[in-house]
């Protein structure tokens, strides 16, 4: 069993190439990521989920490659444009969430400094 | 003239001179020292001085003029620098999803922790929201009626009484080609016929003058444009398969099968372009004929189509999923009259037969066919499942582009059957007309819409969402009820529908917006339809 002292700060990540536990108390980040995405994906009506990094490159996805790349590129641009629109109107304001409703489904984008979470849902009509 | 002007002085001078002359003459009368009469004498010269010339002296001055000197300058110009540039589209390279590096995973986890609650909340709200019920936005101008855009025909073919047997749109959706032939009498081989193509995007489109005409020595029964090349057409006539390139004006024929042992012995009913299994940008031609053979051709070398794979339908080898009425002895071939490939599985296809039963077949079938037809390639039996028959031969089948199991078939009994590939009896059967039905096609944009061409001269558009009993729109194509033989939707310009009839005209119809825009949840409705009737 590992012993760990309460230093009051998060432990450093391991330098090894294999994913491994950083601290038993927090759980594996890898598993946490997977679980969170699975929870979102299994929600009612969700067609696809993907995580895109700050450059618009998809990192995690549940859809096929070509669709993912298309969504990632287009929504990254749109999110940047929406964010700058909100900031231009009021510099104290900032974008928190973006929803696009189309005939067939709804696309939701949760933006952040480093990542974008994109969820596509088919809402009940 | 001057003498007249001044007669005065001159006459005085003249008379004085004359008087002097006369005096000299008189003075030389007879006298001493003077010669006698009739003797020669020389007299002095008399001169008459001019008066006017002394009075008026001639005055002259010299003047000269010259044009000013012409200013000239020479300059030369020449374009010397040029730059070559080439542009080429490349096939798209598939981009892959990048897995995150080891360093990023904790930050990714932190991000997901931050946003998860918000996203789940929005998903829940959306699921229960009625905010958008009945809310529809129209982006394009709404077209309410179905109207005929063009009426195209080729007068020499119409003069011969030829019918339009097949229509095809090209890959860009701008050119419609039609094949002329006759569908009602059996003498195929001596009839000279045509394949005509009209480019609808050209400004100088003349409906009676096609932009490309190919003369064919026999009737053409079927036509299909190449899926990516905008100008290659494969047509079939009396057993042979020909491929033309319509952009070449002098000799459009690219490939032909020739009349070998391999070619069909009966008229070919349909031809389809298929991507090659290994190289998806090269295509093969599949031909289906009433002699029971399904052949796959490859264009090789110069001008020759070679057989790569072949299938033969034999009555004995048909799967006994349904009870067929006749059980003939011997190896009878089953004539195939129509073929449709599934959009979801490229090796699966549906054949419509002369016996009225559709067959589910696969290109990957391995069993050898029990047939004595000679062939250079071993023939295989493709049939995997037999569906319940129609009341007569099937003329057209079409697989749904939105649902992997549904397909339509239409035949001479005037009924359209909607089949699911999972069961033999049809899901529904609609009687559209008391006469034959020659063509049926699913709409490429609306999952619940299909069109059928009937022998009564009309094109019926069915919307299964609105009514499953009667057609939503009935378009009358011919005035004298001569049959409409073929119809095709344009998959690029989705509001266009082309239909060809027995009078040799092709009419291009513009559909109203309700047929071109998908409503919400149509694909789900199609799934429900497939599931509810099957249960």
UniProtKB/TrEMBL annotation, chain A:
Location in or out of the cell: Cytoplasm, Cytoskeleton
Domain Roadblock/LAMTOR2: 33-121
InterPro entries in the cross-refs: Roadblock/LAMTOR2_dom
Nucleotide-binding recorded as keyword: no
Gene Ontology cellular-component terms listed: ciliary tip; cytoplasmic dynein complex; microtubule
Pfam families: Robl_LC7 (PF03259)
Positions in coiled-coil regions: none
SUPFAM superfamilies: Roadblock/LC7 domain
Organism domain of life: Eukaryota
Region named Disordered: 1-32
Composition skew (Pro residues), residue ranges: 13-22
Keywords attached to this entry: Cytoplasm, Cytoskeleton, Dynein, Microtubule, Motor protein, Transport
UniProt function note: Acts as one of several non-catalytic accessory components of the cytoplasmic dynein 1 complex that are thought to be involved in linking dynein to cargos and to adapter proteins that regulate dynein function. Cytoplasmic dynein 1 acts as a motor for the intracellular retrograde motility of vesicles and organelles along microtubules.
PANTHER family (UniProt xref): DYNEIN LIGHT CHAIN ROADBLOCK
UniProt record similarity statement: Belongs to the GAMAD family.
Identification of the protein by name: Roadblock/LAMTOR2 domain-containing protein
Organism whose genome encodes this protein: Pan paniscus (Pygmy chimpanzee)
Phylogenetic classification of the source organism: Eukaryota, Metazoa, Chordata, Craniata, Vertebrata
